[in-house]
TrEMBL record:
InterPro entries: Beta-barrel_TonB, Beta-barrel_TonB_sf, CarboxyPept-like_regulatory, Plug_dom, Plug_dom_sf, TonB-dep_OMP_SusC/RagA, TonB-dep_OMP_SusC/RagA_CS, TonB-dep_rcpt-like. It is a multi-pass membrane protein. SUPFAM superfamilies: Carboxypeptidase regulatory domain-like, Porins. It comes from Sphingobacterium yanglingense. Keywords: Cell outer membrane, Membrane, Receptor, TonB box, Transmembrane, Transmembrane beta strand, Transport. Residues 217-344 form the TonB-dependent receptor plug domain. The keyword Transport applies. Its main location: membrane. This is Iron complex outermembrane receptor protein. One of its GO terms (cellular component) is cell outer membrane. It is found in: Cell outer membrane.
Length: 1095
């Protein structure tokens, strides 16, 4: 069996290598022909000799009949680095011979009258004109195509074009991205001016990615939100996920703070599972990414570095993204089966366009600041309060604003260079970008260098299409001790808030003043810790599509995703809280993913009324992640780069660990799209997934879906109303899965025990071995059943349009670790809880309207709204706890629970009623006088919404975007410390709000509803003012655009912390927490200045 598997793997690898080799050769050949340049130097030679010379110098071949050429004709040609088209124009200037260059390099020479059957000999003439938009502004880069012979021209920066036509030419086709195409007759004309109308773009022209293909938006039966690059959020964007925040209904995005490159929690239509694995699947140019992103861990010393999650999409340059399609309901996501339960986000990058090559340079500089400081006591207030309470001491003579010491005004820059072009046979685009983003906390920042290239080539008379994409990125980020691992003492932000304001920054000798191990100088923590991370990633894929017969197409897609990450953290020996002098932690992670997909599509119609699109395919993807970590202590030298010589550590007891994870996913999938008379649409999908993560008895899961739509606006009784420009009803049902679970939890796991025996013969100690995980071969997939009903509508000729969707999602067979049934080798076992359900019911609304549309002024307005109700039922235990608070005396609590009848993310605890006459906290009690434990609200918002508007006046444009949530709660763990005056007696600082209460300063910290705050907010997330400069007398510049952008201008909220958008990771046993603020890196307010030049 093992030999057979090895042979199969060898054959698969060999076959994949052959596919790659053949595809690369095809691409190489096609583009070599396009870029061929010729040097010819002949005087009065026979034309046949010149044609033979060209064949010898290039891969082109000529086809002609000798009797149709004047073989005695003598020609002279002196070409230097000329293209084949230029050479042929010199050889045949009289136009009695016409040529056609085929995609395979064959050049067909024929008399003009016989090039196209039925064509009569005609006189060539030139036609010219100007192409402009509705406001009269010229359009640069408009494609002008002669429909008779497929010759092309394009407009210059003044909108001017020239093209040769024959007397019997029938029409020219004018096309431009984002505007409707026009076909205009040319008979009898020598001048032709064209106005393209952008408002004429209809649903039939909008293409949406649906997984393994694309469809026109008018033919969609599922629920998909599509965002093009013009719809994205503007300003300083590092995380590509931020491009869509507040722009689409049904998707809730909570960033993990304002640290450069920070990750985000993304939820599509609610939370579907108890444990991790609730993020959507990301598909980049047809390649599903491994969303179980493994990152290098931080230091072993608590609080020595930030462990906040970084975003797995950081390797992408946001400027390279052309569109993001969000697949939300099961009828849309079921094509991805076991990875579709949490939604699918399909990212398509920018491609080259047919026409003259376009060079684009984009550059911007930004300034970022802290929007607000938290209101803690200054030195004078601190001393007077302690005196008023009879507390002596605690005055060290300084007046230090510690927040001023750790925050700064940050400068950032971002530069992108791209070049793209092509022709009817192929396109290309390459880009290079560099970003240097400073964080608003000192010594934090992100550097990113990305390079991207894609090509597309048509071969064999356009029957074969080869496409290739590659992205390479290097990301470097610098961190300081921030976040959930820092504990009460080890966090820079918390130290700046709670440190005694009379403590000095420096000691008399000029070094950092360090009061004690528990009272840490935040500036010393920043400057005496080096925490650097480097991530290198290469994502590439190559595909070939072959038209076998009319309508039948075969496609193969090969992809590889490789990344390496290295994190090195060094702490200087002068930090007095280190127990064994200076420390070094080195962590390395390497991840690999490979993919091979084969699928067939077949398009056909019957009687011009029944249109079918069939899809059948196979996919195999494997993943591997391995990590290594080394920790050493005891460094005493002043040279900070301990990592360069680990032997300098005094302990000589390096801690070493390593791990490796492997899994694979094999899939079979199919889809049927049926269209009856362009009115009635049906879609059915089936996918079977087999994963190594699951038990031997349930390796495969099956995920079907079905949906239908009725295009009612095409019915006569709707048209008679003269009301709707679009009206479509949609309904769908489907089952999707979730395979993002701990690796191989169905299998037996052994570990070392606490006991040992002595070998009597060798006298060696033999370590004991014990079972640490009970196997369960019956573990199967979590499955989410979803029903969706929606309507798409449009009024006023498309000026007002929108969608409304109602959905009901239920997850069953929830995977949990429960108590084992005795007898069992371990106390807990993983299993599917059959009776447990997690339900998400909600409504989505999206409205977009053109409020004003005049020659010099237009105004668009968009609005989206989502409400979701989440409930848990059938939990086999009373509750699952998570979200442990941080702080002295409260670390034993759990702030959140999962329990029956409540939403995921429910805060749980005592209800605070105020203070008694002694200044002690009072809590609500039951009828027996026992303090009641109860629900204190949910971190999940009841409503989320986004508002965006765009105004254009001549060459100026203004884009404004708001986003917000309502009805959610936030546990302010920071306020739980600084808003209580119980620590002032211990020489800690507190907020001015704390000393305004009647609280007993000699009390202890407590967790309760007192610090569960309203997390609702409305944020002006971005405002961008742009100006398009018109250069009418400079031919070599197509356009120049200047813009000023502001991010995070203001936030309307009742929340008292830095920012209500928080998501500190206080998970417990793999159960994530939501909505906890524990020294979250504040979001910056940013002002950006940018310029974009197109050549």
């Amino acid at each position: 069996m093992q030999k057979t598997q090895k042979k199969q793997r060898f054959f698969c690898k060999g076959r994949n290598g052959l596919y790659v080799l053949l595809t690369v050769l095809c691409i190489n050949n096609g583009f070599a022909q396009q870029r061929t340049s010729l040097d010819l130097d002949y005087d009065k030679v026979n034309i046949i000799d010149v044609l033979k010379a060209i064949e010898q110098k290039t891969s082109y071949r000529f086809f002609y009949q000798r009797e149709q050429l004047n073989t005695t004709k003598k020609v002279s040609i002196h070409a230097r680095n000329n293209s084949i088209q230029e050479v042929l124009s010199i050889l045949f200037p009289d136009e009695t011979i016409q040529y056609e260059i085929k995609s395979d390099g064959l050049i067909v020479l024929t008399p003009k009258s016989k090039l196209t059957k039925g064509k009569e000999n005609s006189q060539q003439r030139k036609i010219s004109g100007i192409v402009s938009d509705e406001s009269g502004s010229p359009l640069v880069g408009v494609s002008v195509k002669n429909t008779s012979n497929n010759s092309h021209a394009s407009t210059n920066k003044a909108g001017y074009y020239e093209i040769n036509v024959s007397d019997n030419s029938t029409s020219l086709l004018f096309s431009y991205v984002g505007m409707s195409s026009q076909t205009v007759a040319t008979t009898g004309k020598t001048s032709l001016n064209i106005t393209l109308d952008k408002s004429a773009v209809g649903l039939s022209e909008v293409v949406v990615s649906v997984g393994y293909g694309s469809v026109n938006k008018k033919d969609l039966t599922g629920s998909i939100s599509s965002l093009k690059d013009k719809d994205f959020n503007k300003g300083l964007v590092t995380n590509p996920v931020e491009l869509m925040q507040g722009r689409a209904p049904g998707i809730n995005i909570i960033t993990n703070g304002g640290e450069p490159g920070a990750g985000a929690m993304v939820r599509v239509r609610g939370s579907n599972s108890v444990r991790s694995g609730q993020d959507p699947l990301y598909v980049v140019d047809g390649v599903p990414l491994d969303i179980t992103d493994v990152q290098p861990s931080g230091p072993t010393i608590s609080g020595a570095g930030s462990n906040a999650a970084k975003n797995p999409l950081n390797f992408l340059n946001p400027d390279d993204i052309a569109s993001m399609d969000i697949l939300k309901d099961a009828s849309a996501t079921a094509i991805y089966g076991s990875r579709g339960a949490n939604g699918v986000i399909i990212i398509t990058t920018k491609k080259g366009k047919s026409g003259k090559g376009v060079l684009n340079i984009s550059s911007n500089t930004s300034i970022s600041t802290l929007p607000k400081q938290l209101d803690v006591m200054n030195a004078e207030t601190f001393k007077s309060y302690r005196t008023s309470k009879g507390i002596s001491g605690g005055d060290y003579g300084a007046n230090t604003n510690w927040q001023d010491q750790i925050y700064r005004t940050a400068l950032s820059q971002n530069h992108t260079l791209s070049y793209g072009g092509g022709n009817d046979n192929g396109t290309y685009r390459g880009s290079l970008s560099f970003m240097d983003q400073e964080g608003i906390i000192k010594r934090t920042g992100l550097e990113k260098l990305t390079a991207r290239f894609n090509i597309s080539q048509n071969l064999i008379h356009n029957r074969l299409k080869i496409e290739a994409n590659i992205t390479a990125a290097r990301t470097k980020d610098q961190r300081v001790p921030i976040g959930e691992t820092g504990g009460f003492e080890g966090d820079v932000i918390l130290s700046a808030l709670k440190n005694n304001p009379t403590l000095p920054i420096y000691n008399p000798e000029g070094g950092y003043y360090q009061h004690s191990k528990d009272v840490r100088n935040p500036l010393a923590m920043i400057n005496l810790t080096n925490d650097n991370n480097q991530n290198d990633r290469i994502l590439g894929n190559i595909s070939a599509s072959l038209d076998i017969i009319q309508g039948l197409k075969y496609k193969i897609n090969l992809a590889s995703d490789h990344s390496t990450a290295s994190r090195k953290v060094m702490q200087h020996h002068s930090l007095i809280y280190l127990t064994n002098k200076g420390t070094v932690d080195i962590s390395n992670v390497e991840q690999n993913s490979s993919l091979i997909e084969n699928f067939l599509t077949y398009d056909f119609n019957l009687k011009n009324r029944h249109r079918f699109n069939l899809l059948a395919g196979h996919s195999y993807q494997q993943f591997k992640a391995q990590s290594h970590k080394l920790s050493e202590e005891g460094f005493t030298i002043d040279d900070f780069d301990y990592v360069n010589d680990l032997s300098l550590g005094n302990s000589k007891q390096a801690t070493v660990s390593s791990s490796i994870l492997k899994n694979a996913l094999q899939s079979f999938f199919g889809r049927v799209n049926y269209n009856l008379s362009d009115k009635y649409l049906l879609t059915a999908t089936m996918r079977a997934d087999g994963s190594t993560k699951f038990g031997s008895n349930n390796k495969y899961g099956y995920f079907p879906s079905a949906s239908a739509a009725w295009r009612m606006q095409d019915e006569q009784f709707i048209q008679d109303l003269n009301l709707f420009s679009n009206l479509k009803l949609r309904a769908g049902w489907g089952i999707t899965g979730n395979q993002e679970i701990p690796n191989k939890i169905s299998q037996l796991l052994l570990g070392s025990s606490g006991g040992a025996i002595l070998d009597g013969s060798s006298k060696n100690v033999i370590q004991g071995v014990t079972l640490t995980r009970t196997p369960n071969p019956d573990i199967k997939w979590e499955k989410t059943n979803q029903v969706n009903i929606g309507v798409d509508f449009g009024f006023l000729g498309g000026r007002l349009n929108g969608t409304v969707d109602l959905f009901d999602k239920t997850t069953k067979d929830v995977l949990l670790e429960v108590f084992s049934i005795s007898p069992a080798p371990t106390t807990r076992v993983w299993t599917n809880v059959e009776d447990m359900r997690i339900k998400n019911k909600g409504v989505e609304v999206s409205l977009n309207g053109v409020l004003v549309e005049k020659k010099d002024f237009s105004w668009d307005l968009g609005f989206n709204f989502t409400t979701i109700k989440n409930r848990v039922s059938g939990l086999p235990m009373s509750q699952i706890t998570t979200g442990s608070p941080s702080g002295p005396g409260i670390t034993g609590y759990s702030s959140q629970i999962i329990t029956n009848g409540h939403a995921i993310g429910t805060f749980w605890g005592r209800k605070f009623l105020g203070f008694d006459e002694h200044g002690d906290s009072m809590f609500e009690k039951d009828e027996n006088g026992i303090e009641r434990q109860q629900a204190l609200g949910s971190a999940l918002p009841r409503y989320s919404y986004g508002i965006n508007t765009s105004l254009v006046y001549r060459s100026f444009d203004l884009n404004i975007a708001f986003n917000g949530v309502h009805g959610n709660k936030v546990y302010n763990n920071v306020a739980n410390i600084i808003n209580q005056n119980t620590l002032i007696a211990k020489e800690w600082n507190a907020s001015n709000a704390a000393i305004a209460t009647d609280e007993n300063p000699n009390g202890t910290l407590t967790y309760s509803s007192r610090f569960i705050e309203d997390g609702s907010y409305l944020r002006l997330s971005n405002a961008t003012l742009g100006y398009n400069l018109k250069l009418r007398n400079v031919d070599w510049i197509n356009s120049i655009r200047f813009n000023v952008s502001a991010n995070n201008l203001f936030t309307i909220t009742k929340y008292t912390g830095y920012d209500p958008e928080v998501n500190a990771d206080h998970s417990s046993a793999g159960v994530p927490s939501i909505g906890i603020d524990w020294t979250t890196y504040p979001k910056a307010r940013t002002l950006l200045f940018g310029v974009n030049v197109e050549f």
